[in-house]
Amino acid sequence: MYFVKEETNQTLEEKKSKFIAYLCPYNQFDSLMKRLRSEHPKARHFVYAYRYLNDFEQVVENSSDDGEPKGTSGKPSLNVLAGNELINSAVIIIRYFGGVKLGTGGLVRAYSDAVNLVIKNSNLKKYEKLITQVLECEYNELSQLEYLLNQKNINIKSKEFTSNISLELELTKEQLDELKNDLPRNIKIK
């Protein structure tokens, strides 16, 4: 499974209609939709599809045809996301009608092609289940620890400064196992 980390877009023209596809992380879906509706007030349709993993590692998916004939835009867009094994990702396709009707087959093809185009031109990352882990260190050990975490591409979600420093990390189980071997002995894993 794969996901996108940042928003990308591509434009497809089909018989004078313009299809602008935006691919983004699922957690940015609502804000992107709001922004696109204000940036494109004359657009005819805002078709979308998204897939994400819930807390139980189940794939939740949804789509909307937004006024296009039923099953000609949202579902084909969702099928392209599923076919590319994308999760925690959303796609919004803005359509400007060009005056020529595409028919149901033409709409399915155009929306699918627009989503495939934006996926092909996006930087996809392989999905790995992340866990949260807390490390505790002394103030004088912080810079060395941050350097080590940076070298291992481990994300620091937050830092809490009390008598010691607590770092909340987001990492894979494999990264945690590797980190345990490389940590100085006085740094505690909570």
From TrEMBL:
GO cellular component: cytoplasm
Family classification: Belongs to the IMPACT family.
Pfam family, one: DUF1949
Occurrences of domain Impact N-terminal (ranges): 15-118
InterPro entries the record matches: EFG_III/V, Impact, Impact_N, Impact_N_sf, Impact_YigZ-like, Ribosomal_Su5_D2-typ_SF, UPF0029_Impact_C
Record NCBIfam families: IMPACT_YIGZ
Gene Ontology biological process terms in this record: regulation of translational initiation
SUPFAM superfamilies noted in UniProt: EF-G C-terminal domain-like (SSF54980), Ribosomal protein S5 domain 2-like (SSF54211)
Protein name per the record: YigZ family protein
Residue span, UPF0029 domain: 135-183
